[in-house]
Amino acid sequence: MDAERAAVRIFDLIDARQIGQAEGALETALQKFPDDDSLRAAEALIVMRNGNYRLAKAKAVALSERNITKPKAVNALVHVLQNCCCWDALAATYERLKPLQNERQISENLVQTYTRMGAYAKVQQAAMQLYRQYSDPKYQVWMVQAMLAQVPADSSDHILLKLSTKLLDAAVLTEKGHIVPSTVQTYVDVLAQQGQYATAVDFLLSGRAAKIGLLATRLEALARMLQKAGRVSAANAVARYLWSQESDNWASFTIYKDTLVPAADIDAGEGGGEASALELRGPAPEMRTTVDCTMAHHSLEEAVQLARELQEQEESKHPNKHRRGPYLAELDLLHSLQSTDMQARVIAYVERFYRKPSCYLDISTFLTPTIAASVYEWSRSCACAASRDEVDVHTRRILGLRCLVGSWEETPAAGEPRALFCECVEAYQSSRHLSESLAWSEEGLCDGYVTVALNIALRCYAADKTSPDYSYLVEGLDLMSVVDRRMNNPTWLIYAVCFANLLGLTERAALHQLAFKNVQRDTMAHVGYWPLLTGLALEDVANWDCWAEDYYSLQERDCSLLRAKVFNYTSWPAMQDVQRFEAAQTNSLYRWQCPANEFTSALLECQTQKDVKESLKVRVEGLWAAWERLSVAGAADTLIDNTDWIVAKSVVLGNIHSATVQQLTDSLVVVPSRDWQVRRSRQLLSSIFLVHDLAAVSSHREAAVQASKSRKGKSARADSDSAAAPVLYSSRLGTPSASVEYLPAVQPLAGVLRAYVDSLGEVAPEAASATAELRTYLKSLVADSEHSAGAFEVFLYPQAYILSALLKMAPAAKLPVKQWVADVRETLETAQRRYESRSWSALATTVGRTPVPSARAVESINLAPDSFTAKLEAEKVHRIVGYVSSLKVEMGAYAR
């Protein structure tokens, strides 16, 4: 079999996802044809498919420098270069292929490559060459896109912005150009960016703008441009026309309300020169219309009247299924008017739409304690009245309870919340049978009772900030053992995770069900990562860190793909969104914490020195990049926290925009401060680099010994002396004006270990004081005065594992490693005894949280045997005892 046939067979196996067989066939073929380009391209592709992007990138870049022409080999090489983000090599490959393949197609691929790498100036140049050669108008659109991508987001007079405007007007939006909705919208956007609102209005009225899409889309854009141009009456008339045509369109109502300016306040010049009608021209009747500007409204009272007229139209058009738009708009307008009719209209809205799942969310913005109480009374009166539909009764009752609890500005006296909590639990228990016929994946019909009960528990817990009532958290968490369909209700899952976190526990099953993925590793750490760390669910922590690192490592590829897709769809606002997203991810607070976290969690699987060295070898570049980013002055302020707080706010009953909901959210979802996170990451990184340097010195000395054994005499000594010095990082961390801070468990030994490392292992520094400091620190973790395991748990992870790695690498011949190991083992044994005897409380332990719960608060937490919370605590203790036992075994191995 020749090389080409072997390569074809291997590529077919790869396409069939039979990677194992492809690897075997490749190994056999390379023995016969070690220099064949197709086989080497297949090798790079297999390496990438196996997840080793670093090695695949190196192989592909090397191959790109060779004159590969076979189609399958070229396709494989291009695929690997794209996925490994080797843009310069890919561009060079396309340039080389131009004379050999379809030049136009290759040139277009080159444009896409420059787009994916963000080199928009090169995109502009390449698109210009393509247009000169082929006169295809789509290349002019590419030129516009490339120029706009180079314009800063806040610029209004950039030269490329002006050039793009002229090119769109004179070439793209003509009969010979490329008039499609995206190019029309782009022209409106660039005019608005430059403040040329009058020009945008004239364009939107012209026939060329008809291709922007549906007439409603055009009218909405026209209303916005008129508003920005200061022609508020005309803008209001257009928005009124649009809202009257589609009363459920909230965007048009928003513009309509925002342009309700009293006639006396409108500029006299505008009033005199304003046209009485606006004519929108177009090639087809459905694209044309005329708006009477004299129909503009100027007061909220007129708007309320219009809303009621639209309600009447809605009732006549859809007598059996009313849409909420005009009714909700009326509430919004009355709220702005501070009308005394508000309470009656809210009750009317509730009576009409209480069956809608969104009903509470609709009215939550307008609820006052008085209105909420009236809704609650309405729900109780309906429940008392005879009704054939039991589900209907419960639906009203749940809405009333939501309104009542959500309107609490202060938590009532202890009796009322307790009674309501019990009422909700009893009502849920009595209504469970109504959901028996539902599919297993659906939420129960009366799950709202439990949601209200959880909100009551949260409010009662957070009522006293100085002495929170943990008993309500326990009761709320214990509810999870008596409800049906727990895993189908995201709100319950979030409450279970957060309540457990506040109690120092981890609800692993709920977190597994929430199953955060991809970008959620960056945005949902407050509900995902920190609760795992609080309860020391280290296997799950390791999985989170691994998946987060995978997400961040593929970010360059993913963002490049986003750039290309948005570029092809010709959407300038979307391109700006991609640029903002990429900036937010590049400067993400969690992104730069991830390398240290991921290495630390990888230590859970490292049993030997070799394991630690291999782990450091593949991660040291990322760790150093993280240190450089986090050591920048004011790093805590320059990093972006991408946490999605809207998700957390949405589970709290109340006006989502209010200070009360914000305070309750802060009490429910507790996250260490930004400064604490940055400081912890720096301590972790500096300690990891100390591990790295000990490993590097150890390898250096082993290499020197091997070199001295291989030869004898002076030449051997010369080889040993001339051996390359290891790359060390600890000496590069600090500055003369700022000392390096290590983890508290590592800090006592840092000076001794640094002295040993700086001398490349030649010096045996005096370590008595370091040994005493370490012993003092370890004893403080298990002091008799400690009522809680909190201090020890902070030490256990990540500090104990970093300390274990240091002791693996430290030379027992020159440093008192055995004594250090004995002190650590003694601490671990004391802790294990306390956990097993339950003389320590594993509840309300904190991670980076201040203030720490008092002994009295912790002791007041009572768990019923076999309760849901008690089981979570038992699981936590069992996990910790397992980790402690494992560390003791490792420490025993060092002491031998």
Mean pLDDT: 88
Helix content: 55-70%
Major β-sheet annotation: 2 strands, antiparallel
User: What would you say the CATH architecture of one domain is?
Assistant: Alpha Horseshoe
End-to-end span in angstroms? 57 Å
Tally of alpha and pi helices: 45
| Beta strand count | 2
Strand content: under 5%
Name the CATH homologous superfamily of one domain: Tetratricopeptide repeat domain
Secondary-structure-based class equals mainly alpha
How would the global form be characterised?
A: flat
Strand order in space, largest sheet: 1-2
Top CATH class of one domain: Mainly Alpha
Organism: Leishmania infantum
Keywords: Transferase
Protein name: N-acetyltransferase_B_complex_(NatB )_non_catalytic_subunit_-_putative
GO cellular component, one term: NatB complex
TL;DR?
The chain is mainly alpha-helical and 896 residues long. Pfam families: NatB_MDM20 (PF09797).
Describe the model.
- The protein is mostly helical and 896 residues long.
- It has a domain at 1-101: Serine Threonine Protein Phosphatase 5, Tetratricopeptide repeat (Alpha Horseshoe), CATH 1.25.40.
- Helix content is 67%, strand content 1%.
- The protein has 45 helices and two strands.
- The chain has a two-stranded antiparallel ribbon.
- Strand 1 and strand 2 form a beta hairpin.
- Helix 12 (197-205) packs antiparallel against helix 13, helix 33 (589-602) packs antiparallel against helix 34 (609-630) and helix 42 (790-809) runs parallel beside helix 45 (868-895).
- The chain is flat and about 100 Å long.
